[in-house]
Write a structure and sequence with these properties.
The protein is an alpha+beta fold. The chain has helices at residues 3-13, 47-60; strands at residues 21-23, 32-34, 69-70, 91-92. It has 2 helices and 4 strands; from the N terminus they run αββαββ. The strands form 2 sheets. The chain has a two-stranded antiparallel ribbon with strand order 1-2. Strand 1 (21-23) and strand 2 form a beta hairpin.
Length: 97
């Protein structure tokens, strides 16, 4: 087992939660997995690639940041941050202004 795989396994063993990950080395080495094939909620991990995709769509002209979007209570999940404070039917934009 590689040093990284061993360190990750040791760290995961200290957490009182279900831990899953997949590490794909950029040098083409073998993947390091711990329950990496099991679907998991994305939680905050999805925010960075989502923001990158939104920015790219805005730059390409296929997304207007000032377009209003309805907040559907059915889309809320545990830990939905400030969205859980919005009234059902709130109409938000992606623009912070």
């Amino acid at each position: 087992m590689s040093d990284l795989a061993q360190q990750l396994a040791q760290r995961a063993a200290t957490v009182d939660a279900e831990v899953a990950y997949t590490v794909l080395p950029l040098d083409g080495g073998p993947a390091i997995r711990r329950q990496g094939d099991r679907p998991k909620p994305t939680a905050s991990a999805i925010k960075v690639p989502l923001l990158a995709a939104l920015h790219a769509a805005h730059v390409a002209g296929s997304l207007a940041l000032d377009e209003r979007v309805d907040v559907d209570p059915a889309d809320a999940v545990r830990g939905s941050g400030v969205l859980k404070l919005c009234a059902p039917g709130a109409r938000l934009t992606l623009d912070r202004r």
